[in-house]
Structures are given as C-alpha cells and as structure tokens.
Amino acid sequence: MSIIMTLRIALKALNRNKMRTVLTMLGMIIGVGAVITMVALGRGAQATIEEQVKSAGTNVININAGNFTQGGVRQGQGMSSSLTAEDAAALRTVPGVQYVSAGVNSRGQLIAGNQNWSSQVQGVDIDFQLIRSWPTAYGAFFTPQDVASASKVAVLGKVVSETLFGPDVDPTGQIIRIRNQPFRVIGVMAPKGQGAFGQDQDDVVFAPYTTVQKKLQGQQHINNIIVASETPDTATVSAAITEALRLRHKLVAGDPDDFTVRTQEEIASLRTETTRTMTVLLAAIAGVSLVVGGIGIMNIMLVSVTERTREIGLRMAIGARGRDVLLQFLVEAIVISLFGGLIGIGLGFALSMGIERFAQWPTSIPADWIGVAFGVAAATGVFFGFYPARKAARLDPIEALRFE
Predict the structure, then answer these.
(1) Are 313 and 325 in contact, with CB atoms under 8 Å apart?
(2) How far apart are CA 300 and CA 312, in angstroms?
C-alpha cells in the first residue's frame, strides 16, 4: 500500500473522532507552545544583555578596589582604600589605554525648590563621557578646571532632571542641594535607559570625583577606575593594567591582588551564560508536557487499536500485511504529533508576541528551535505510536474477526 493511500486512510480514521483527536493533540500543542515561549524569553533576555553591554562599550575595562574587612566582617569589593587618584593617572601611560576616569560612589538626598529625590551620586573624571559615548541633552559636562578645583557642579541624569524640574525643562544654571550642600547644575545627560545589570542609568547625578571625594565622602581614596582601551583586544590591556597596579601597590609574587579588573566581555559572558542556563532549564521543564502529550497519544492509539480490532482483522484477511497495519497506525500517531506541533509553534509565536507587547519583556524566537520543536513532535509521534502500531500489526486475523 502506498504512503499516500496510508495517509488518506489515517486522516479518515482521525476525522471519525474529531473531538478525541483534538484533545489528544492538546498535550502536544501545549508542550511545543511552552517550549517555544520559554526559549523566546531566554533568547530575548540574552539579546538585551548583549545590546546593553555594547551600549556601555565593548572596550571598557572596570577596575574596582578590593575587599575591606573590619572585625571579621567582609564589606565586599570596592570598599577598601587600595585605589587612589594617582593610580588612575598612572594608567594613562599603560600601552593600549585610551581614556581613564577615576570614580567615587556616593548616594544622597537631592533637593531643588520644593522637590526632593534620593539618587546615586557618581564622582567621575572628564573622560567618563568619552568612555561611555554619552552626550548631554542640555548644557555641557564639567571641565578639567572643575575637577582640579573640586567645584560644586553637577550633571543630572534624565530621571533626576525630570523629577526635580519637570519634563522637557532645561535646568542648566539651577541650584540643587546634595546632602545640604549647594551644587550648580551645568548639564543634563541624554537618556541612556536600563544598564546591563538592570539598573536605571538615568537615575544618577554626576559630579567631579574630587568634589565627591572631598566634600561629600571625606575620603582620600577612590572606589573604582574606568578605562577605555584603544582596541577591542581588552584582554591584553587588562593584563597590562593588572601588572601596572601590582607594581604601584608593591605586591610581590604570591600576594593576591587588592583590586579587581573586569572587562565588559567577561561581564557579558557571565550574564549570558546564566541566562542560557535558565533558558535550557525552563525549556526542559516545558518539555515535560511533551512527554505527557506523547503518553496521551499512546493511550489513545491503544484505545483505537482495541476499537478497530475487527477492522484490522478484516484488512488482514483480504491481504493486508502486518507492516501495512503497523505503518497505518504509526502514520496516524505521527499526524497527530505533527499537527499538534505546528499548532503549538503558532501558539508559541502568539504567546511570545503577547508577552512582548503587554508585559514589555523582550522575546526572540530562533529559527533553529522551531526546527527542533517540529522534529521533537515528529519523534514523539514515532516513539509513542510505535507500540500501539506494533500491537495492531501482531493481531491474529481470525481472533481479530471474532472480537466483539
């Protein structure tokens, strides 16, 4: 019997019990749809992380101060006083280094008129704007003279500017108070959006690091240094920076670094690897429903074999071979799986688009996973449909004709 004839017989058999066929497909539809949706969410998260890292600059190197321990309590990276402004100045002579910005982190209550807002205050150098490729929407960034004299000037992020002064307002020249100290606003940064770690990059105030260091924090050290390399080969520059800082800090062989050096590529690879692991985990959990759907197909096919025992006996009596019967029931199982898989792929697309539109979560459906889902659906039909088909093919024609 030709495969076309077998397919026509299978479709007619499935059409006789439409509701049962649809309900059997449901497990496969839900399984494939869930897998496609989970993978789309995971790939969307990976793509977002990669875009955020690119926006921060792939040639950026972050140097943070080491851990500080007091009374047996570790304060964490960036809390020690191991980095100084002199370290940042020395890194300008390291081969491959293009821009350098010392950094001091703080936080404070911002007040402008009758408005107030709590935000982070980042002390940076003039190269920071060049490292991050971050232009101003209003006014200008501070100057070398502002850094040298520790001037009380501030450049606001978009969120801070809109909160204190309202949307579409240029606050240049206005006075804000940070920890009750007056700062003159000289500019507003262009909107940047969410950072690679989920933080709002626009909810920030920038000031000269010397000002934050001396007039807000009262400290001599800095918390971090941001470096931009001349080339994308940040690994070589990172190694040179590590060697230069170890020499400056008089660390001998065997001494651990009292600072950390991280490139954007390392940060990106860590985040994307974590997201990839979660994607695989979620897809595996969703894949359980595929197994459940396959068990449902096997169950229905066994019932179908029992119901059609006399039909099978009659076909064998008039010349149908065992392999013809096996192929017929196997094709029925595969048809159920494939149709369920196709509808499931459509459901996955619909769910992904709905999540992206209404929940504002980025999604991305890779073409290779569509092929994988379709292949798994076909394989499920073959695997779970083989036993019922084999059982049907092994029926004795005489006993089958006697079956009531």
Answers:
(1) no
(2) 16
Q: Are residues 124 and 163 in the same domain?
A: yes
Cβ count near 255 (within 10 Å): 10
Per-residue CA distances from 347 to 33, 89, 342, 343, 394 (Å): 5, 57, 9, 6, 38
Q: What is the spatial distance between Cα 176 and Cα 178, in angstroms, rounded to a whole number?
A: 7
pLDDT tens profile 221-275:
999 999 998 887 788 899 999 999 999 999 888 888 889 998 866 655 666 666 7
pTM score above 0.85: no
What is the number of structural domains in the chain? 2
What's the confidence (pLDDT) of residue 207? 97
Task: Tell me the residue range of the domain where 84 lies.
Answer: 60-230
pLDDT at 50: 63
What pLDDT is stored for residue 241 in this prediction? Answer: 94
Contact assessment for residue 188 and residue 158, using Cβ atoms and an 8 Å cutoff: yes
Distance CA 359, CA 40 (A): 14
Q: Taking each helix axis from N to C terminus, what angle separates 367-393 and 264-307, rounded to the nearest 10 degrees?
A: 20
CB 364 within 8 A of CB 40: yes
Bridge-based pairing of strands 153-156 and 181-189 is parallel
Higher pLDDT, 362 or 64: 64
Within this chain, do residues 115 and 193 fall inside the same structural domain, yes or no? Answer: yes
